[in-house]
Amino acid sequence: MAICDCEVLGRTLREGKIVFHVKDEFYNGGKISVEEAVSMIENSTIVNMVGQNCVERAIEKGYVHPEAVLRIEGIPHAQIIKL
Fold first, then answer.
1. Measuring CA to CA, which residue among 46, 50, 43, 39 is closest to residue 76?
2. Dist CA 23 CA 59 (whole Å)
3. Residues 57, 52: Cα–Cα separation, whole Å
4. Residues in Cβ contact with 71 at an 8 Å cutoff, skipping those fewer than 6 apart
5. What is the predicted pLDDT for the residue at 63?
6. How do the domains of the chain map onto residue ranges?
7. Predicted local distance difference test score (pLDDT) of residue 30
8. For the domain bounded by 2-81, which CATH number is listed?
9. Is 56 within 8 Å of 34 (Cβ atoms)?
10. Distance between the two ends of the chain, CA-based, in angstroms?
11. Are 78 and 72 contacting, i.e. CB atoms less than 8 angstroms apart?
């Protein structure tokens, strides 16, 4: 599952050697609320998320540890892999 905040969709984030493309083709599966998107994490095995709103909400729900968040140009990015 891929989740991003609307305001970062289509942006290219750069931080040192990291170049992160928030591609429309990958992240734009439709617009839903942050709460709805984060609730879908429960049934997902792999999650890729970028943006202040969705990552903060995933942290609040206990899906992401705050120390596991990478910031690129100040924008949080997190991944979840359930084995």
1. 50
2. 23
3. 8
4. 15, 77
5. 95
6. 2-81
7. 85
8. 3.30.1860.10
9. no
10. 15
11. no
The Cα–Cα gap between 43 and 23 comes to 23
Encoding tokens for residue 39? 């609730």
Q: Which two tokens stand for residue 19?
A: 């170049």
Which residue type does 10 have? G
As a whole number of angstroms, the distance between CA 15 and CA 40 comes to: 29
Q: What is the full per-residue pLDDT of the chain (83 aa) written as tens digits?
A: 999 999 999 999 999 999 999 999 999 888 899 999 888 999 999 999 999 999 999 999 999 999 999 999 999 999 999 98
Q: What share of the chain is helix, strand, coil (3-state, %, to 5)?
A: 35, 30, 35
pLDDT by residue (tens digit) across 21-38?
A: 999 999 988 889 999 988
The residue with tokens 């943006």 is 51
Return the pLDDT at 52.
96
